[in-house]
Amino acid sequence: MSPTEQEKIGLFIKKLREEKNLTQEAFASLLKTSQSAVARIESGNQNITIEQLMKIGEVLNHNIVSIQNTIDFKVRGGKKLKGSIATNTSKNGAINMMVASLVNTGTTTLRDIPHIEEVNRYKELLESIGVKIRWTHNDTALEITPPKKLSFSKMNKEVAEKIRSFTFAGAFIHYTNSFALPHSGGCKMGERTVASHKYALEYLGVTVETKESFYKITHQELHPGTIPLYESSDTGAITALIAASKIEGTTTIKFAPPNYQVQDVCFLLESFGVKIEGIGTTTLVVHGKKDIHKNVEHYNSEDPIESMFFISAGIVTKSKLTITRCPIEFLTLELEKLKRMGLVYQVSKNYLARNNRTTLVDITVHPSHLTAPHDKIHTQPFPGINNDNLPFFVPIACFSEGQTLVHDWTWENRAIYFTELNRLGADIKLLDPHRALITGVKRLKGAQIVSPPALRPTAIILIGMLAAEGESYLRNVYSIKRGYADIAERLNSIGADIEVLKGM
Fold first, then answer.
1. Whole-model pTM?
2. For 117-151, what is each residue's pLDDT tens digit?
3. SS in 3 state form for 106-167?
4. Which CATH superfamily is domain 71-87+302-502 in?
5. Most buried of 2, 64, 73, 200 (most Cβ within 10 A)?
6. Looking at domain 5-60, what is its CATH homologous superfamily?
7. Options 3.40.190.10, 1.10.10.10, 3.65.10.10, 3.40.50.10240; which CATH number does 91-299 get?
8. Is-contact 16 62, C-beta < 8 A?
9. pLDDT band at 5 (very low <50, low <70, confident <90, very high)
């Protein structure tokens, strides 16, 4: 009987090990596993993940597995970055405004929308239910015109399962009394709660039933109300805002985080003629309008998370780098933390974004000697450190003298992915699923890593590779393409050396 595929892989690994004159015990030590596990692998009696195969390939200096139809990055690290790079507009702002556009029965043109996978997913879902949506203005804007009725039965369920589809609930309730949405997707960082969305909608007369694979959402009569958000959730606040915008009367949303994406949606709703009091505070008062029919052109704002990506990249590569068009209101605390760690930087005079609401600056970082902060780095609802900005402190901490405690309390599993930087020579100890203790090192080295199934952890691995000596391979970079447009090309424009490999 011919050997199974698993047995073939095991025999191949055994052959490579023997060619390296490694005993099973020595090989196990390099893999940080047991000799018995190696024996099971080589005999074909051990299930092996792609990540494990990549690790084995790295140890044996041989490509064990090839992932077809993927895009990989080959990063030649240790290069100084230089010049300047502009911050792109926001992923989260874009997708949330795409949803908010549904409350306007006229045509909404959203300007400065990034070409990223997440936007494409939302566009596909909207098209599947009958929304007219197309790229305009040389493919930099989305023109959105909803129909009188949405075709919920034709919803692309495959797409809906990949995104945070519950964010559509606040808009969909104005089209029908009953519909279903699949459980949320997005980054794989633990279960995504919809509690803040669900309870907010309940105050407006909506019932949400949780089924095995979907949510059933129904209502008889919508009414305004006072909503104490169950948690200070950006997306929960946005769902409440969108829902309240078309309910006549006054709805008060308490404990709303005044974060950038929440403000972006407020600005768009105001352009529809919806009066909103308290923008930039934790209490929003929405004066709903039953009929909204306007042709509106509105600009997306810049992404503070992307600004932080480039700030982190500049720091770990010890570069002088200018990041332009940074929304300073949403980066001030991050910069304060970095200042106290020893970062030398300059901030330009303020200027307005194209939406005439968001304040921008140019930030120049300089090569600096950083030390670990005396206390932990953790997230809080805005104005605390942004949930999505926290991971960028991890590669920074890798090059900071001393030990840094990073507490990522929001996501159940995200901190686990931080330890992937150990493959590059970092010293990160996972204390529990939320806390990582990072000891600064002098240098990182190249390695081969499969992208985690989450955007920000993949981004920080790429940043680590930019600083690492030698060549690194970041396999299957779809996760990073969800949130960053043309990131390899843009990094190369400021001195990085990244080769895009297709179908390797």
1. 0.83
2. 889 899 999 999 999 999 999 999 999 999 999 99
3. CCEEEECCCCCHHHHHHHHHHHHCCCEEEEECCCCEEEEECCCCCCHHHCCHHHHCCCCHHH
4. Enolpyruvate transferase domain (3.65.10.10)
5. 200
6. lambda repressor-like DNA-binding domains (1.10.260.40)
7. 3.65.10.10
8. yes
9. low
